[in-house]
Model the fold of this input.
Amino acid sequence: MKTLAERFPRPDLVKRINLMADTVGGAAELISLDPAEMIEASSRITGLSDFGESIDGDWRGRLEGLVASLEAEADLNVMGRLQVRQEILRCLQSRLFLKQKITQQPEILNEEILEPLIITGTGRSGTTITLELLGQDADSLAPIAWKAFHPTNDLGDDEVLLQLTECEQDLWLDICPQMAAIHELRSDIPDECIGVQKPSFGGMLWWVLHDVQTFPMDPEAAMKYQKVIMQVMQYEYRQKHPQKKVPHWVLKTPTYLPMLDLVFSIYPDAWIILNHRDPLKTVPSGMSTLAATRYMRSDRENSEQLLELAGNARNDMMMDVYRRRQAGELPERFIDLHFSDLMNDPVKALAAVYQQSGKTFSEQYQQAIHDYLAEKPKGKHGKHSYRPEDWGMDTETLKQQAKDYIDSYQVKLES
Done:
């Protein structure tokens, strides 16, 4: 099996920057991740001091727990520490600006988030393209990436913030050019919810990006923080468009799958769009994505550990949802969306989603889907190649592990 260095060869500049650590005794000597210092710096830069504990509780404890896990387990290289430090500083300043905004305009917290469309399913099952296409409806709201990164617009005008966000995301491609074919990163399209939740320091994205097994995640805190961000965005929309009805929200992350009870406790009238795809595609694709993401920030060769993470957990979670739906333990607000149907006829597939959720599928939205796809042909940034055997997986074993899932949801196989 190929090493990660062979799969994702680094540009020479990235190699040289990472090797700088060897001249001074390690990456930690070059770039500090001291929580107290970053907190002090964020207050000094912004002139603010209230980080918004009233929003989601003990943010500082979660930050300190995150940094402790990163230092003990993540084995970050220089580029990894640079990315983490920048992200933590941005998140801290975002918290300061957010708290200032809701203090100045407390009516924001009265905004009601009604009947959101929430996309989930196993990773690499088409959740991203579903989010992007549903976000093309002019009567929808979605957390556009630059707005999710800078929700209160305190660092400049919209164009400046869009450029800053694009720069941060482009750095990923500078470090790992192969990511362009794996997952498109743009600042002007909807962002996954784990990105919105990042400043809570309790969300899943920190685990996705780094090997931090003891990181004390706090999904409830992450969801509370995200809801306030949504309330800000919805409030600003209503201020700009006072004559229009409030659009429905479109949200997405596969990490909602194991916490649907929490999702329904916050959004009781949500519609859950459950994406399905051939596990012989999603499992190796997910392995490739997670490996590339983590290898950007660490030199650790851990393909075997990643293989354990791939395991059968995905199928188990989908089957748990199936059994609970059959038993009536979950609200009857699920819409099953198959990747094969979405790819064969996206307009028909999404029209069915709208019909089931009681939303109006307009001609303008239909045309917007066609226009978006015309600008985003498959393979636009190269082909993401992945096969089970490339990652030490046995195809027949994968089929057997996924049999109950495939049969129960009638998943169409692609191979």
Notes: The beta strands are 117-121, 140-141, 248-252, 271-276, 334-338.
